[in-house]
Amino acid sequence: MTWLVGGASFLLAASLAPMVGALATRWGIVDHVKERGRKVHRRTTPLMGGVAVLVATIMTVLIVLIRSDLLTSGRVTTAHYVGLLLAGCVLMIGGVLDDKYNLSPKIQLLFPVAAALVAIAGGLGIEKITNPFGGFVWFETVTWNLFALGPHMVAVSWPGDVFVFLWLLGMMFTVKLLDGLDGLATSIGSVGVLMVLLLAGTTAYFQPDVVVLSAIILGAFLGFLVWNVHPAQLFLGEGGALLVGFFLGALAIISGGKIATLLLVMGIPILDVAWVMFRRLRSGKDVSKGDRLHLHHRLYDFGLSQRQVVGLYTLLALGFGSLTLVLPSFAKLIALVCLMFFTLIGAYALLIVEGERR
């Protein structure tokens, strides 16, 4: 049944994507060819691909909720799904407006902030994460009930909700900045969702509701990816990239704090973003402006094709992500340290080679 709903989501996203692309072209929501900057595509390409991902996810989730209890057989409630899907809609509204009207960075920020708050209001929260040195790190919370929406009480918890808020924003903006080559963000996002799905299906965790939700999101990602591989016929758009990061971050929380899993999958992009932000701040540049400093751009400029860069990133994400299925918590910490070390060494070597070529 899991793969059936995942397949349905895949078919929906793959079918909706060309229609969304045609609509984006008609509305003039397209990414034009640019010779400079961080864009590398060579033809005008429609945006709004995230709409196909979101609509496919919403439709499949609603059908499963109406016809079965697969999505509510564990700790995930209907309120969680309402919060997640409404948050996705907030992201897509903001993304489409940004793609069309090129909103200022301050206005852009309002939508992911609002989306994170909507998800938290829907009940997305965290009680604990695994301590790699043994036991758990508990988020001993103080909870304030705000108001009731039917049977659901909207509440704010400290410090758990603050952690969730910052985690969601971090994942959203990491994927947004990763979305620089055809299929890159969606491929890495798919690996992240797959790892959560596989981990939630093990006997140690066994979360059937999380497995089904992960299958739906994975199907939507892969259905869109059919149209996003190089040469891409449709881009995620600003809202779509944020949506991929949001779904990844939300899955890590809703599945019981699988933070290490996503950190291993997203380790290289996260380190890359941190390094680029540091360099921009040090040089006095606007951190919100895109450039070609990211590792995937450097690899592309070094001579690798888009498919080769995406393939390399995907293989590394699969390799490190797979470790979460077999390693205990402390070993995952060691793997994270090793990932950081080898990423820094690789980036340093690339800088040296670039300097010699100049």
UniProtKB/TrEMBL annotation:
The chain crosses the membrane at residues 6-25, 46-66, 78-97, 109-126, 146-169, 181-204, 210-227, 234-253, 259-278, 309-327, 333-353. InterPro entries: Glycosyl_transferase_4 (IPR000715). It comes from the Bacteria. GO terms for molecular function: phosphotransferase activity, for other substituted phosphate groups. The keyword Transferase applies. It is a multi-pass membrane protein. GO terms for biological process: cell wall macromolecule biosynthetic process; cell wall organization; lipopolysaccharide biosynthetic process. It is found in: Cell membrane. Keywords: Cell membrane, Membrane, Transferase, Transmembrane, Transmembrane helix. GO terms for cellular component: plasma membrane. The keyword rRNA-binding does not apply. This is Undecaprenyl-phosphate alpha-N-acetylglucosaminyl 1-phosphate transferase. It comes from Candidatus Uhrbacteria bacterium CG10_big_fil_rev_8_21_14_0_10_50_16.
